[in-house]
Every structure is written in C-alpha cells, then in structure tokens.
Amino acid sequence: MPTVKRDYYEVLSVTRTADGEEIKRAYRKLAMKYHPDRAAGEGMDKAEAEHKFKECAEAYEVLSDPTRRQRYDQFGHAGMSGVGQHDFSHMDVTDIFSMFDEIFGGAARGRANASAQRNANRRGFDLETQVELTLQEVATGAEKTIEFEKQDLCETCKGSGAKPGTTPTACVQCGGQGRVAQQGFGGMFRMVTTCPNCRGRGTVIREHCPGCGGSGRKLKKRVVTVKIPAGVHEGQAVRIAGEGEPGENGQPSGDLHCYISVRPHPVFSRHNSDIVCQVPISFTDAALGGTIEVPTLKGSEKLEIPHGTQHGEVFKLKGKGLPDLRTYRTGDQVVQIMV
What we know:
The protein is an alpha+beta fold. It contains 11 helices and 16 strands. Strand 5 (179-184) and strand 6 (189-194) form a beta hairpin.
C-alpha cells in the first residue's frame, strides 16, 4: 500500500517559482546524494536512501515537464491520474539513471555499467494510475474504463527508430556486440562495459524515423477496461499485465498498476470488512424497543432493538458488510444507536 506522497516541490527542495534549470540542478544533487551505493558508503540506511532516490525521480519527472507541472500545480497529486507516470517504486535504480542519462552523463553510465547489458534487453517500465470507487462499488466489485497516456511503439518504424526503408547499422565501436572491453589499473584486469556509442544495442541508427525522431516511441492515449474485485482497500493495486511501456529489443511490455481510492461516503464508514453507521431514533423507540429501518449498502434492512436501548449502544447486521479478499467471508454492518 503506497504511503501518502509528499509535495513534489518539497521533495526537491525548490520553490514553486523555480525554473527548469533550478529543478534539474536540485534533482541531480539529491539523486547523487541518495544513490543507494553512495548513501551506504556514507552510513545512510540503504532502503531509506533508495526510497528517497525514487521519490526524487518521481518528482522530477512531473516538475520537469511543463504540461504535467501545470496539471500538478492546479490539482496536486490527484491530477496525475491518467497521465502515464512511471511507477518508480517497481524500477531499479540503474533503470532510473538510464532514463535521465542526459542529466547525469558519465556518472549515470558509470553506475549503470554493471547492469547495462541487462537494461538494453529489459522488459518495459511499469506505469501507475488511480481508480476511484464508491463504497457501493467496493461492496459489489466494478468494471472501470481507464484512459491514460503512455509511450508506445512508433507505428511508422515499428519501434526500431530508423527511417522506413532503412535499417540500423552495426556499431563500429563495439562491432555489434553492445559491449566494449577496457584495461584497468595498468592492465592488471580486463573490464567489460556497455558500449557508450550504441548503449548496449549493438546497432546505430543513421537515418532517424520522422515519426518519432529516432526514439522508436510515441506518446499515445490508451483506453483499457479493468475488473476490480469486491472488497478492495484504499491504496491497493490492481495489475493489468502488458499495459506499461514496451520493452527494449522485443522484450515484454511492463504492467499498469491501478491504485484504488475510495470516495468518502456521507453515511457509512469502513473498518476492515465491516461497515459502520449511526442511526438516530426517538427516545420513545429507545425506551419501548421495536423494529427500525437501517440503511445498508444494498438497501434498507429491519433491525429489532430491545426496550431500554441506550444512546451509543451497538448492534450488528450479520453479513451486511464487505467481502474479505483474504478469507472470502463477508463482514458485518455495525449499527450505533443515537438517541
């Protein structure tokens, strides 16, 4: 379950009037500070450093993009739903360095070398979005249509990045291997690293695709349907396989993680799988007892209350709560009497 997100400007320690260069400098400084390898060497908890590193990357992705930043300034975190944000919590640190390589330059490549060959053939990045449900939909389950944007394969070049009718050529620096060997420390050992010229692909594009500028990707709108099971909780994620960004060199696409938010209800509240409500009755009904009507998520139910019922006394309607995804039982409705 995701924690409450901090303000992106606070994460990067910049003001809301900061320009793009200020934001870039702030991100680079913090990312280098919280890189888990460096942080561990300076005595910082590695897990905490990794969390902060990914938090900074998420903030930078939004604030460095004028459109996303404007939307965030207007609506906050709620406005980021459906804009195809990367799910940094599921990404490796080296993947994040690779994404923002133009900021880190040699530092990014140096830290990513150990896994760069894997990155050149990795599955696509995961994405995340938010799905809002009513409490009634939590009780019954729901089918939701989600619209979002994501980087997808360019239809013009089929993801190759090369101009149609041309093909990428073998990289002359690595001979098409995607890796180069270097002698280190006076030739005492041989170190194999990712080729900086082709970034591990083994090929170089000479004529870029006019549709995508050589990236092999284009931002596209997607509409998908997701089935939400009954009984989900606030912050729980439902995964849609293959709806993330496409993988490198034909590898599988990432997934889309749909985080659940539940709209507050004016009458009912939730406690685990139980539904809680307060029902006002008259002093006469409390004194004499009888049958009262109680609202539930699926209509009204009759409840027998004894004579002498006290203010604040609690009764239960068995099986009128929410399904429990772990035990497959249904919770109860807790009715508190208000005289």
